[in-house]
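debug: dumping io for the single-chain case to check the tokenizer round-trip. Nothing else runs in this session.
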Amino acid sequence: MSSDSSLPIAMGFVGLGAMGKPMATNLAKALPAGAHLYVHDIVAAAVNELHALFPTIVVKCGSAREVAQNAEVVLTMLPEGAHVKSVYLNPSTGIIAALDQTSTKLLIDSSTIDTATNLHIRSQLATHSPGTSFYDAPVSGGVLGAERATVAFFVGASPSDPTLPRLTSLLQPMGSKTIPCGGASLGLAAKLSNNYLSGLITIATSEAMDMGMRAGIRADVLASVFKAGTAQNTICDVFNPVPGVCAAAPSSHGYVGGFRVQLMRKDIGLAVAMARHVGARNVLGAAGLGVYAAASEAEDCRDRDSRVVYRYLGGKEDW
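debug: decoded output
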């Protein structure tokens, strides 16, 4: 990936987990000569590893506040709403502690959290620092997409937002598509709707693969049938839950890496809550949430990629 001279010379990234670290890596690769990427994570090893890859670009910081003090644009990628709230609003170590009435920073949160927390953070930042812009921009594409810089960003902005071209330019090194979803927190609403559907498709794919294989069809043949028919979906084609069908999928590596099953449980729960809040009727939500909750507690599934629900459902792995 070549450098992009349109990117700022001082950017920040907070949250170097399974998604954040490869995203920050791709961003560092794209920064122009002389630029710096200020980073922070509570896991020092993640920060050290990124710094070792880009010793002249990555600057290690002791807090989110320090990142925001040095960077004009800050991106965050964190597991849950409580983490996001702390990173942005902690009066001592949070981003807000680096802002004042004259600040004009651009803050982009790519975490998948509830819309209420996002709107609360937005309100607090607007009061404390009116010139600072804050956008929700969650992503879809999984760890493979983060590594390959092919994730899609769902941005909480209207197509006519004057900042959208800048946002698109900033996010381009990390993803293949930026979709404006209409306004504040609507990127999150889109992401929760997406993960609700993706999570349920994973369960349905696991069940369909299992029953077809039990009937005597080879897993790879069955996957090719789904790909050619009306059942075609990305989970089956790229992240197939049956080990050995997709060589790069987490399932083919002991379900290590990928999107942890506990995080899918969280996202399905947030989606079901959002549906309830807006008055949508979800007949599959409770059942899907139950599957992910149970798999999250199962010893042979916990902390593994969410497609491990195939294992939880009793699917054959050594076909």
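debug: round-trip ok. The chain has a mean pLDDT of 96.
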